[in-house]
Write a structure and sequence with these properties.
191 residues; alpha+beta; Immunoglobulin-like
């Protein structure tokens, strides 16, 4: 009979311990397998043994959580490092693209100036082939205005940056509504 009372007391204490400390099935199994008659002779010894087992389980769980937390922090640091490297790589690519675009714009401006020089040369060739009583010339200026020389009349205008909005003012000056440069094509009639 005393053996039955002992076992009942042991299980009552285990059940009380379970409600107070235990959170997982693994802890329940470990507790039950550790509390044998050889390990605890009295209910109080069983209770102390159960508390000791549960405390060691809690310490192990804390170590595992700390380990996982360290792994998480390392992974986050690695992710942040890769993010910074990737961001730097794309910033470099963007800066290189800006440099390439600026070089292309510079080349286009140079090509346009070369074209403008060819147009001016052609106008001078035409001017030299026209009878002397008729004179043609062209002027080119940065900005929105370009004026013909004294004695010449503006007959047409050209504007930079693909701007097609222009007008002739006072029969001598070309005015562009937009663009970076203005060219005037001028005619002189000798009397």
């Amino acid at each position: 009979m005393s053996k039955i009372i002992y076992i009942l007391e042991k299980y009552i204490l285990i059940i009380l311990s379970l409600f107070i400390f235990i959170k997982s099935d693994n802890e329940i199994y470990r507790l039950k397998s550790s509390l044998t008659e050889e390990n605890c002779q009295t209910p109080f010894e069983c209770y102390l043994k159960a508390v000791e087992i549960l405390k060691s389980d809690r310490a192990e769980m804390r170590r595992q959580m700390d380990f996982l937390n360290d792994q998480y922090l390392k992974n986050m640091q690695e992710f942040e490092k890769r993010l910074i490297e990737t961001t730097a790589k794309y910033e470099d690519m963007l800066n290189q693209s800006k440099i390439n675009c600026n070089e292309q714009i510079k080349n286009l401006n140079q090509n346009f100036q070369n074209f403008q020089t060819l147009v001016d040369q052609r106008i001078n060739q035409v001017n030299n082939s026209i009878p002397h009583h008729l004179g043609l010339t062209g002027t080119h200026s940065p900005g929105l205005f370009s004026s013909c020389p004294v004695g010449y009349t503006a007959i047409s205008c050209s504007c930079g940056s693909g701007c097609g909005s222009w007008e002739i003012q006072n029969e001598k000056t070309c005015h562009c509504g937009c663009g970076e440069w203005t060219s005037a094509f001028c005619l002189k009639l000798d009397n």
